[in-house]
Specification:
The chain has 255 residues and is an alpha/beta fold. The chain is built from 11 helices and 4 strands; from the N terminus they run αβααααααβββαααα.
Amino acid sequence: MKLPKLIFIVFFSLTCLGCKSQTSVSRVEIVEPTIEQEATSIWRTINDITFFEKQGYKINLPKDSLIDSLITKSKNGTFGNEDFNTIYTLVETKIFDKKNYEPAIQKVTNQTELISSLVYEIDTSKHQWHWNFNMFDKYRIIFTLFGTGGSYDPDEGTITLLTNMKGDFMNYKNPVNTIIHEITHMGMEYSIVRKYNLTHGLKERIVDTFIHIMFKEQLPEYKIQNMGDTKIDKYFNQKKDIDSLNTTLSKFLNK
C-alpha cells in the first residue's frame, strides 16, 4: 500500500534527523602532546630503523649526535629499553615545545566532523561484511614530530600522526587521508592481517584499496601505494568485494 505523501515526508525528515544526530557525534579525541609520547616515538623509530630503511620509509628524527649514536646501537643490535631515559632527557631539555604542535592540532580539529562521518559510514556498513572490522567509540590522535608518517595501536584505538612545526603532514596535505588509513589498519589488524599473516606490502595494498573503494568521492586525493601483489586488484576493486574480503583472500593466498 502506498503511503500518503504527508506521512512519507514526516518519516523521511525524522530519519534524516536521526542520521544527522548520529554523524554529529565526534569519534575523534585529540591528545595533548607530552614529553613522554615524543620520547616514545623516537625510541620506537630507532628501535625499528633497520625495517623502516629496508621498506624505503622517510625517517624523521632529531638532528643530534646522541641520536646518531643510538641509531648505530640499534643497527648493531644493542639498543633497548635502557636507552629510553636518555632519549627522554634529550627531549625534555633540548627539543620539546608545545607551540610546535599547534598548527597541526588546528588542522585536525577542523577535520573532525569529516573523520567522524567516514567512521560512521564504516560503522553502518560493516554489518553486511562476512568478516569483523574492529572499531572504537573514540579514536585518540597523538601528534609527533618524529617517526615515519603514521602508526596505530589496534588494542587502544590510538593513532600517532607525524607532522612538523608548520603543521604539514607526510604524503597528504589533508591529514584525514592518513587518519582513515590508520583507522582501517586497526579495523583489519586481527580479522584479516594477522589471520592470513599478510606481508607488509599486501597489507598496505588491501588497506589502500579498501579506502579507495569506500571513500573515493570524499577523499579524492587518496592514492593506492605501489606496494604488494597487484594480482589482488582483479578480485578486490568494487564495493561488493568488501563483503567477501575474507573469502577472497583465503582463495587468493592458497591458489
